[in-house]
Amino acid sequence: MKPTSNSYLKKALIICLYGLIGLLILLTIIGLWGLKPLLTKRIQHAVLTATNNLYYLDFQNIQYDFTTGEAKLSGVTCQADSTLYSQLRSNKQMPDNIYQAQIKEIHLKGIKPWKIVFSSKLNLESISIKEPIIQITHQKQVYNSFKTAAPFHVILSKFVKSFSVDKVSLDNINFTYTDHSKPEIPRTSKVEHLDIELSDLQIDSASHKDTNRFYYMKECIFKLEKLEILTEDSLNKFKIRELLFSTKSRLLSIKHLEFDPLFKPIVYGNKTHGDDRIKIVCQDIKLEAIDLFKLFEEKKIYANNLFINQGKINVFTDTRIFRIPPRAKYRPFPHEAFRKWQLKFMIDTITLSLFKITYSEYNPETRLVGNVIFAQTNGKVFNFTNDSIPLQKNPNCLVLLKGKLMNKANVNMTFNFNVAAPKGDFTCSGKLLNMAVANVNQVTEALVMAKAKEGFITYFAFEMKGNKFGLTGSTTMLYKDLNVMIYKFPPKKGIFKKRKLLSFIANTFVIKESNPIRKKPARIAKINYRRLPNKPFFYTLWKGLLEGIKGSVI
Question: Which of 216, 138, 218, 221 is nearest to 175 (CA)?
Answer without folding.
Answer: 138
